[in-house]
């Protein structure tokens, strides 16, 4: 009988019969495992997390038992369930080797699950993934496009540098495949290889160029993506694409090269983009009426990269960018995406001025969109491009100011930043009016930033002193307690230098001070300082010189003292505010013609105050009314006009802070002569945390200390004493006579990251101390003569004591630093840093801890060698965290006894 009569198939050989038989035996021997859909149903039916874990643990145990079998007919199903378990967040690493077995299987269904498992369970951090390199190479040479696609997807997902080097040639070959499906996936795989091994970029250049001539949109978008990646991460490749790209033509040893200039790649992209925007309806590429928006966005991004800093390439793409900007449909979000990318390209290349105006107008239309995301993107983009064409952005100033009223907090924040960027000398009055209204109505989170920015803008563009002062006063009133400390110091500095406006300012501040100012502490501080300095003009000023009769204030000495009485004893006022008020009250004793005795009694009451800062001032100022009354007029006279100090962003200060190693400051050794150090009254106008170090000795035994780096001296901050400035002046300077350094630093109002003028509430008392006799009876104003214990720092509940101990080494002393926490909160991340002149040698031991509990302490040993036996001057930086806030303070200590070196 003929075999064909019975339907005999030659392919049905003995091997196939054996496989079918084994699978049948396997099914009979082992029960059929649960299907994936049944497992999902059970997991979703679990009512608690415990029940879910029980289901998953039971199924994982079963899967492990089946994996122990050499030839399991259900391996594919079990791995699929294991992948679902892995996606739920449960461990599934024990299935990694089973994925490798499925990849090696000849069946496509097994390979598909195996490669999926490899992408999910394997990565380059695990050595197991290297075992599939050979399988990937075999599948990349498969005759089935779907198997090749699986291998390319997996390689693009988990490729390591080693795997990329092994298979880069195979991927480059597949990029030239006649199958568009394979070329697309090969380009994406090449993208991953270029990211992992940039030096392999060169072998993909010829094949990548050929992808731009494709008609298939999928291949085009992957080709553009690959070229974009190459150009962004390799300047040489960017120039190669723009100037001279060589394409291999032919095969074998007789290959020839064709030079393609820049005019070929940019016009090619322009041609593709033009076909997209002018093409008719295409169902396979249409998205909301726009033809292939994804490809358009990719091409626009590549054009932006190619046209950056290239006038010739920018000129070639100007026309197409204008067409895209005018012909794109804006009623759909897809069109807005293309317009946004077009605006970025126009602003980034060397485009024409008219095209830039068109781009800004597009962003202006975005601001009128109802979609909050589009408005936010428009504001963010305008903020980045406002410096390129400010006049074009100014046309949309009204719309931008309207965004300040938007209910969305992110939009308000971006609109606020953009509004300050638009301020100039022509519109400063209009803009400030709107911004002050915003400040009055804004949420507390905006008040600090807005008030500081208004002060900076007013300082830069103020048309006159009167307007500048009125603006600062409105800021102090509108922002309340959210005003930053730099606003207080800036206002005081401006008042001190505006001699003609001092009476007017004192009158305006008195009106504000008469009201309840408990929620405006900075305003109270400025008001009391000004009234203390210029109270006589408020009481006895010439009213005939006033421009406006409404500016005239009728006030008596008793009315002022009544207000001061309320301020000093109000529990709502802070200690800093009371310090300002107490000093102002003491100065008024020299401005008033009577009521001196009442002022003395008010000041004397603070001699027994619970707070040590106020008690210290009460005792000191009381002495000025008693035994040292003859010194009071000279000490409390008006402070001279203060010079404005240029601000910067404080980044150098932060950098200096970050360079601290083991308690020592890593700073530069800069030559400083005597002429650059101001040793007069400017010592009380201290900029804490400066960036111009001069002459510092660091511990040579510290292994982690970096070598000194040359830092140019800043001529703008020569009058300020920073952490190191003034420590090494070429000569040994005697210590100050009257003002204790601890007192000076305690009286500094506060600091911030800006190099801002900080004012001492002691005012002229400190400024005149260097020229007045020693006040021997004032306990806190004389140097501590105790050779064994010195108070180095005391503020905000932190007290630092220095205990001097002798050592056997000549000209060397040991200082035990003890930091005491007198607050009810722990001080964490405590860091104590020291700087000394370079004529000294400093060694710091490790501290006993970095956290100081309440009523606890931390100690650290400092060893200082002084070969020249000169006077020791020391700058200290203290930083810690308390109550969720970070505190950083700086102080100077130069009251060390000379006998300690003997």
Automatic annotation (TrEMBL):
Gene Ontology BP terms: intracellular protein transport; vesicle-mediated transport
Signal peptide per UniProt: none
UniProt similarity note: Belongs to the adaptor complexes large subunit family.
GO CC annotations on file: AP-1 adaptor complex
Residues annotated as domain GAE: 785-897
InterPro entries named among the record's database cross-references: Adaptor_Complx_Large_Subunit (IPR050840), AP1_complex_gsu (IPR017107), ARM-like (IPR011989), ARM-type_fold (IPR016024), Clathrin/coatomer_adapt-like_N (IPR002553), Clathrin_a/b/g-adaptin_app_Ig (IPR008152), Clathrin_app_Ig-like_sf (IPR013041), GAE_dom (IPR008153)
Protein name per the record: AP-1 complex subunit gamma
Gene3D superfamilies (alphabetical): 2.60.40.1230, Leucine-rich Repeat Variant
Keyword line: Cytoplasmic vesicle, Golgi apparatus, Membrane, Protein transport, Transport
Membrane protein topology class: Peripheral membrane protein
Positions of the UniProt region annotated as Disordered: 693-713
Localization annotation: Cytoplasmic vesicle membrane; Endomembrane system; Golgi apparatus
Comp. bias regions, Polar residues: 694-703
UniProt source species: Thrips palmi (Melon thrips)
């Amino acid at each position: 009988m003929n075999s064909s009569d019975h339907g005999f198939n030659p392919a049905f050989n003995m091997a196939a019969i054996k496989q079918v038989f084994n699978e049948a035996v396997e099914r009979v021997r082992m029960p059929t495992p649960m299907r994936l859909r049944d497992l999902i149903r059970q997991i979703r039916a679990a009512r608690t997390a415990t029940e879910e874990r029980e289901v998953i643990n039971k199924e994982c145990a079963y899967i492990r038992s089946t994996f122990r079998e050499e030839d399991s007919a259900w391996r594919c199903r079990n791995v699929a369930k294991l992948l679902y378990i892995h996606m739920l967040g449960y461990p599934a690493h024990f299935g990694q080797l089973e994925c490798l077995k499925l990849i090696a299987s000849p069946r496509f269904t097994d390979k598909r699950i195996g490669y999926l498992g490899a992408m999910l369970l394997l990565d380059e951090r695990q050595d197991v993934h290297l075992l599939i390199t050979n399988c990937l190479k075999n599948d990349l040479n498969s005759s089935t496009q779907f198997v090749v696609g699986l291998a390319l997807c997996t390689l693009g997902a988990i490729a390591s540098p080693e795997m990329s080097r092994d298979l880069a040639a195979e991927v480059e070959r597949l990029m030239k495949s006649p199958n568009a499906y394979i070329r697309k996936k090969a380009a994406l795989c090449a993208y991953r290889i270029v990211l992992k091994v940039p030096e392999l970029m060169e072998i993909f250049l010829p094949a990548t160029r050929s992808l731009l001539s494709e008609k298939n949109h999928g291949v085009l978008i992957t080709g553009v993506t690959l070229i974009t990646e190459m150009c962004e991460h390799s300047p040489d490749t960017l120039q190669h694409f723009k100037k001279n790209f060589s394409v291999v033509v032919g095969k074998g040893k007789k290959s020839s090269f064709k030079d393609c200039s820049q005019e070929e790649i940019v016009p090619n992209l322009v041609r593709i983009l033009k076909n997209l925007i002018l093409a008719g309806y295409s169902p396979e590429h249409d998205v909301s009426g726009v033809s292939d928006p994804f490809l358009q966005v990719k091409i626009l991004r590549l054009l932006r990269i190619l046209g950056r800093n290239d006038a010739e390439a920018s000129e070639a793409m100007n026309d197409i960018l204008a067409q895209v900007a005018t012909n794109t449909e804006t009623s759909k979000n897809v069109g807005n995406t293309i317009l946004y990318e077009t605006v970025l390209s126009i602003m980034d290349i060397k485009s024409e001025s008219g095209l830039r105006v068109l781009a800004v107008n597009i962003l202006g239309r975005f601001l009128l969109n109802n979609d909050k995301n589009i408005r936010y993107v428009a504001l963010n983009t305008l903020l980045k491009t406002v410096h390129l064409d400010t006049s074009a952005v100014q046309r949309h100033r009204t719309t931008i100011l309207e965004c300040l009223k938007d209910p969305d907090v992110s939009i308000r924040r971006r609109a606020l930043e953009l509004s300050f960027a638009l301020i100039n000398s022509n519109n400063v009055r209009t803009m400030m009016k709107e911004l002050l209204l915003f400040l009055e109505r804004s949420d507390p989170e905006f008040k600090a930033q807005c008030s500081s920015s208004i002060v900076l803008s007013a300082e830069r563009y103020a048309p006159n002193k009167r307007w500048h002062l009125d603006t600062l006063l409105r800021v102090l009133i509108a922002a309340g307690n959210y005003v930053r400390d730099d606003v207080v110091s800036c206002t005081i500095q401006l008042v001190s230098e505006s001699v003609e406006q001092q009476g007017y300012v004192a009158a305006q501040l008195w009106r504000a001070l008469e009201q309840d100012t408990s929620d405006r502490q900075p305003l109270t501080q400025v008001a009391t300082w000004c009234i203390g300095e210029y109270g006589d003009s408020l009481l006895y000023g010439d009213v005939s010189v006033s421009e406006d009769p409404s500016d005239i204030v009728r006030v008596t000495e008793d009315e002022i003292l009544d207000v001061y009485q309320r301020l000093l004893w109000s529990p709502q006022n802070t200690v800093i505010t009371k310090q300002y008020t107490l000093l102002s009250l003491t100065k008024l004793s020299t401005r008033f013609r009577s009521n001196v005795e009442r002022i003395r009694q008010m000041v004397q009451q603070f001699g027994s105050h619970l707070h040590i800062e106020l008690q210290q001032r009460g005792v000191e100022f009381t002495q000025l009314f008693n035994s040292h009354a003859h010194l009071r007029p000279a000490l409390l006279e008006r402070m001279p006009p203060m010079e404005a100090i240029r601000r910067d962003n404080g980044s150098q200060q932060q950098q200096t802070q970050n360079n601290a190693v083991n308690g020592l400051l890593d700073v530069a050794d800069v030559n400083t002569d005597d002429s650059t150090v101001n040793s007069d009254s400017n010592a009380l106008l201290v900029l804490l945390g400066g960036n111009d170090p001069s002459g510092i000795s660091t511990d040579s035994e510290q292994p982690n200390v970096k070598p000194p780096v040359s830092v140019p001296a800043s001529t703008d901050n020569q009058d300020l004493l920073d952490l190191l400035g003034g420590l090494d002046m070429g000569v040994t300077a005697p210590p100050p006579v009257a003002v204790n350094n601890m007192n000076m630093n305690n009286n500094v109002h506060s600091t911030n990251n800006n190099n801002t003028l900080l004012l001492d509430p002691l005012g002229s008392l400190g400024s005149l101390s260097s020229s007045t006799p020693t006040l021997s009876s004032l306990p806190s104003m004389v140097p501590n003569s105790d050779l064994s214990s010195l108070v180095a720092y005391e503020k905000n509940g932190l007290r630092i004591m220095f205990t001097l101990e002798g050592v056997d080494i000549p000209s060397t002393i040991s200082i035990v630093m003890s930091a005491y926490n007198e607050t009810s909160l722990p001080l964490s991340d405590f860091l104590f840093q020291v700087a000394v002149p370079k004529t000294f040698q400093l060694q710091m031991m490790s501290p006993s801890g970095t956290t100081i509990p309440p009523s606890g302490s931390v100690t650290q040993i400092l060893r200082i060698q002084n070969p020249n036996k000169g006077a020791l001057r020391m700058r200290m930086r203290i930083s810690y965290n308390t109550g969720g806030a970070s505190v950083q303070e700086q102080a100077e200590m130069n009251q060390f006894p000379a006998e300690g070196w003997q």
